[in-house]
Amino acid sequence: MERRAFRLNGFAVLLVLLVLAGALVPGWQSKLSGLDSTAWEEGLPGGVGLLIALTIAWLVVAVIVASGFTVINPNEAKVVQFLGRYVGSLNAAGFQWVLPFTTKQRITLRVRNFETAKLKVNDADGNPVEIAAVVVYKVVDTARAAFSVDDYEEYVAIQSEAAVRHLATSHPYDSHEEGRTSLRDGAEVAGELTAELRERTDLAGVEVLEARITHLAYAPEIAQAMLVRQQAAQVVAARAHIVEGAVGMVRLALDRLSEQGVVELDEERKAQMVSNLLVVLCGDRATQPVVNAGSLYA
Fold first, then answer.
1. CA distances from 121 to 132, 139, 182 (A)
2. What are the residues facing 210 on neighbouring strands?
3. 30-67, pLDDT tens digit by residue?
4. Could you tell me the CA-to-CA distances from 198 to 31, 75, 109, 132, 231 in Å, in that order?
5. Is a pLDDT exceeding 60 seen at residue 245?
6. Rounded to whole angstroms, how far apart are CA atoms 21 and 27?
7. Residue 290 and residue 272: Cα distance in Å, rounded?
8. For the chain, what is the largest distance between any 2 Cα atoms, rounded to a whole number of angstroms?
9. Among 182, 153, 187, CA closest to 170
10. CB–CB of 1/144 below 8 Å?
11. Binning pLDDT at 50, 70 and 90, where does residue 271 land?
C-alpha cells in the first residue's frame, strides 16, 4: 500500500525562489534611483506598477511554495496527504519539498519496545499465573500504520496483551509430560509468541522483531502450594534417578564378584547383599556399618 511521494530537494527549490527575488531587485533599484519626490506626487512612474505586480506575484508564489517544505529526520517518515487523499510517503532524510498545501503526518521508523502489564490468567491446566512479555517492533509500512488503524501504538499494545493471554491459556506453567511444551520453555514459547504477534500486527504495517516472556509466576494464592508440589516432584525425580543408579551399581558388583570368583553366593546371600547395598546407596542419611562376626544363618 505504501508508495513514494513526489519530492524535490528543498534547497534547490529555495534557490529558485531566491533567484526570482534577485531578478526583481535590479528593476527596483533602477526605478528608485532615477526618481525624486515630485515624481511620486504626480502618480506612479512608468514601469513601477508592473514591478509591484511582479513582486506581489512572487510573494504569493513564495507562500504557496513554502507550504511544501518539510524536514525529515533519520529513521523517520512522513505520510503526505492532499485534501484527504493519500499522495505517498517520504523516508529520505533531509530538507525536502513536496506538493503545496499538503498535510504531513510524522511516523517513526525506529525500533521500539514495550513491556506488557502483568496479566493474571489461567494456564492450560487451570492454574492462575501471572505473566508479562516484552515486545520489540518497528513500522515497515507507513501507509498502513497511518490509515489501517486509529493508533498503531495502541493497536500493538492491545494485540500483544491478547497474544500473551492466548499463549498462557494454551500451555501449562510446568509440563509433567514428555513432549508437552510449557510456559517455562523459553525459546519455543518466544518463537510461538513472535509468530502470533506478526500475524496480528501485519494489518497495521508493523513488524514484530522479537517477543519474550519477562515475568512468569504462579498467582500468590496458590504459589505456596505449587512450590510444595514442585519440590515434591523434584524429590521424586531425584529419588528415581538415585534408585536407577543404585540398581546398576548393585548389578555391576554382583557381576564382578561372580566373574572374578571372589566369593560364591547363593540366592539368599545375594538378596541380603542387594538389600544392604540399596540401603547404603539410596538412603538420604549416612549409614552405620554393622560387622557380623558370625554366620549369616546363626
1. 11, 30, 15
2. 136
3. 655 655 555 555 555 556 667 777 788 888 888 888 88
4. 69, 21, 17, 18, 38
5. yes
6. 11
7. 13
8. 152
9. 182
10. yes
11. confident
